[in-house]
Amino acid sequence: MNAAYPPQSVVAAAMGPDAGFRPTHVVPGDGMPTWEAPDGLVATEPLDALLPVRLLERRGDWGQVLCLNGWSAWVDARLLLPVPQGPPSTGQQLARTADARALLARVEETVGRYQRAVEDLAAGRMDGETFRDTTRGLRIGAVVDGEAMWVYDAEHDRWCYCDGTAMATFAVPEGASAKAAGGPGAGATEADGDGGPPTTVLGDR
């Protein structure tokens, strides 16, 4: 990995006052390429699918992301999936969904399938190709903070919020992301604001 590490002051700010890594986005389900600089010239190591990252800076369609290990790189920020940063505000109109337990059961089942595949791979009962075939298509996402939980519903492609008593749709994609073959525009300039990834938080419409 050749991308430059950000200054320690930037890393400290991204970690937050309690020194815990606080992601703002996750990498899309098919992973994403990275570059050393916001020019698309020198590619670096790709990011794994659903990897949590912290968006540090936006320059047009480009975004500099920070990983948990302190490594950073530039990506097409339009493709990042936002992680909800707070529960729905009081009085916000949300579309109610089913009981959270059904979705949690699917999360548990998916984690169990992945764990069994990892154990078989580690024990030599499965080769790498079989491991990839077995885990292909598995997709989950969950953030738990005390009584609050944000969980990704892969079946309906949406994020849901649960407070333990009820679950509601919190964020949904706005159609297919615009993917650029060579990355974001090479002539991107500093932009005011982050431009926002293609996701709508219900209640903002």
Explain how this protein is built:
The chain is α+β, with helices and mostly antiparallel strands. Helix content is 19%, strand content 27%. It has three helices and twelve strands; from the N terminus they run H-E-E-E-E-E-E-E-H-H-E-E-E-E-E. Helix 2 packs antiparallel against helix 3 (128-135).
* Binned strand content: 25-35%
SS-based class:
alpha+beta
Separation of the first and last Cα atoms: 41 Å
Q: What is the oligomeric state here? A: single chain
How much helicity do the residues have? 10-25%
Widest β-sheet, arrangement of strands: 6-5-4-1-7
Shape: globular
Radius of gyration: 18 Å
> Got a strand count?
12
Taking pLDDT < 50 over at least 5 consecutive residues as the criterion, the unreliable ranges are 1-19, 174-182, 186-205
Highlighted features:
single chain, 205 residues, alpha+beta, 5-stranded antiparallel β-sheet, 27% strand, globular, disordered N terminus, disordered C terminus
List the helices and strands and how they pair.
Elements lengths: L7 H8 L9 E2 L5 E4 L7 E5 L4 E8 L2 E5 L5 E5 L4 E2 L17 H23 L5 H8 L6 E4 L2 E6 L4 E5 L4 E7 L25 E3 L4
Antiparallel strand pairs: 1-4, 1-7, 2-3, 4-5, 5-6, 8-9, 9-10, 10-11, 11-12
